[in-house]
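Sat 14:20. Reprocessing the chain from the morning session after the first attempt stalled halfway. Input below, unchanged.
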Amino acid sequence: MFLVGSGKFEVSMSAPLVFEYEDAGKRLVGKKSGLKASDIDDILDYLCSVAHRRTVHYLWRPFLRDPKDDMVLELAVAAGSDVIVTYNKADFGGVDQFGIRVMTAREFLLKIGELL
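Finished this time. Tokens:
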């Protein structure tokens, strides 16, 4: 089952994050991923169609070591998110100050009952 857009959780996006995902995704084109630029565009179009679009009106930078991670944190706070899902948990140290937990995808899937 495709979980994004299923209503089991909310996806939030901001324009800067979409541009970051596009940049990162298109760096995979032509490599071992087998993805084409149009595949990245299709994935992002779908994510944007199901995501709650947020505008970030405040910045805490720098809070985290990587400004791109700060962008994710700012979006999570603007969206009132409970969780940031990432494989780079160590990069988000201290976000608990904002009432946000950091989980891997596996931990999140366990939390929402999609893995046993």
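The first strand starts at residue 12 and ends at 13.
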